[in-house]
Amino acid sequence: MWSHLQRGSSPVDWCESNYSISPIIAEFVNTVSNILFFLFPPILIHLFQEYAKFVNPAINVLWVLLMVVGLSSAYFHATLSLVGQLLDELAILWVFMAAFAMFFPKRHFPKFLGGNRRKLGFYASVFAVMSTGFLVMHPAANAFALMTLALPALGFLYKELHRVKCARVYRLGLRCVAVCFLAMFCWIIDRMFCDTWLSIDFPYLHGVWHILIFIASYTALVLFAYFNVFDERPEQRPQLRYWPRNDFELGIPYITFKHPCKKDRNLAI
């Protein structure tokens, strides 16, 4: 049991050379590139105060889970331990499941749920627990299994973008998809062509993946938060805004409302 906590016990080792920069951090760049997972979520919690108050306070769970992903990923790359790898992958799984339970459109609910989002949250939790067991038993296949979860998420994003009429939301959606595909491209070529990157002394594409996938992930969550209100509470008139300047669309996006009203408890998880 304790051997899984030992440094280098994970079967996964990324392209970056181990302990080449720091004697105590295995993959230095892959570790520190998780910094956005710590910097952005507190800002998002602040920006989404109105959303948490009038729609669903569970939105903050997603921002906290992103911080857990960053912490787990940093620990994994710093130690390359099997426990670190599993924590990293399980944190990603639970972000997916929490977002699915919170934002999956009610018009697509199966009949046995009766439009009850709490029931969806229960079944999503059961699936997450079962998948957790699978990930623990088969750690070598985890990264590829988790990567496949992005495909249905992108499919839903594409479908929802064609239902909204706001050009600003549509542009953000296109940027999100582009960044997501660029992130996956960096992950794949770092994994498959490591010798090439080592030959030019740039084995850091997995660190680039961390930065890009965080941007794509939190942007997707902002978009799905918008779609959720647009679909289920259109009377609130959700609006996409940017911080620190609303006229700068490369800032941090968040959701506000033109007509905020008291939240419906049936929407909370």
Automatic annotation (TrEMBL):
Leading EC class: hydrolase
Subcellular location per the Swiss-Prot or TrEMBL entry: Membrane
Protein name: Alkaline ceramidase
Any GO BP annotation: ceramide catabolic process
InterPro entries according to UniProt: ACER
Family, per entry: Belongs to the alkaline ceramidase family.
Known cofactor(s): Zn(2+)
Enzyme Commission numbers on file: 3.5.1.-
Binding annotation for Ca(2+): 13-14, 16, 18, 27
Membrane topology: Multi-pass membrane protein
Main localization category: membrane
